[in-house]
Amino acid sequence: MKFIKGFLINLQFFTAIPIALEIPMDKDHLRKAIQTFPLLGLFQGIIYSSLFWGLLLWTPFSHLAIAFILWLATILLTGGIHLDGWMDTCDAYFSYRDQEKRLEIMKDPRTGAFGVLSIIVLLSCRFLFIYESTLNVEALSYIFITAIPFLSKSVMGVLLLTVKSAKNEGLGSLFQSAASPGALWIYLVYIIGFLFLVNKDMLLAGIVIIVAAGCLYFCKRKAVKWFGGITGDVLGASVEGTELILWMTVWLLHYFAMA
């Protein structure tokens, strides 16, 4: 039951889906929430791939229109929570100030020029990768679209429990106080399940997982170097950055491995 409630906590915090249920925010429930981060991503991915499949099969819309609807869904379903973290983190990083000043910039509710430019680049690149992927659809495409948020939320969970917090406040610190890295054992089960799902295409799936692992490694190093650790904004930026790289990977696989 706590496992389900942990998943519902994630829906409340990280999606725009209204969950009219009061769930205790104690350590047990937050620990289960962390353990269900990948399932939250899987849930989002299933929505994206189902929407994509339905639009291609049952509507007369062009590939451009379908790509736009899917692109828009990736924004609306999350309520933009991770995009906000991406903008704040980019504003802080591109200020080229020390760690303390960067943390202050992230807390500023105002968005600077670098935050605006970074979100334009991020969303433009994502749209390109989605659109061109719609032109070369295969059965494996739907699995990879499902895997993108699944892996990005896995990266978020690992970062949360393996990188120190840059400050003792905020959403990141709240979740981090509830669990230890030992809670991440279930992530390995999820990854094995994903590989079992793709079966004969394990090589391509392995490439996607390796890319996600590379994003994790990069984010771990740079979070400490640039900000002194993680914050809620840094975690949000890691999700968006990882998803962008994974969308690019799927786009390239359509050209060079799935054509």
TrEMBL record:
Keyword GTP-binding recorded: no
Catalytic activity: alpha-ribazole + adenosylcob(III)inamide-GDP = adenosylcob(III)alamin + GMP + H(+); alpha-ribazole 5'-phosphate + adenosylcob(III)inamide-GDP = adenosylcob(III)alamin 5'-phosphate + GMP + H(+)
GO molecular function, one term: adenosylcobinamide-GDP ribazoletransferase activity
EC supergroup of this enzyme: transferase
Recorded topology in the membrane: Multi-pass membrane protein
Subcellular location: Cell membrane
Cofactor: Mg(2+)
Domain of life according to the entry: Bacteria
Alphabetic keyword roster: Cell membrane, Cobalamin biosynthesis, Magnesium, Membrane, Transferase, Transmembrane, Transmembrane helix
Keyword Transmembrane: yes
Function, in words: Joins adenosylcobinamide-GDP and alpha-ribazole to generate adenosylcobalamin (Ado-cobalamin). Also synthesizes adenosylcobalamin 5'-phosphate from adenosylcobinamide-GDP and alpha-ribazole 5'-phosphate.
Name of the protein this chain belongs to: Adenosylcobinamide-GDP ribazoletransferase
Species of the source: Neobacillus ginsengisoli
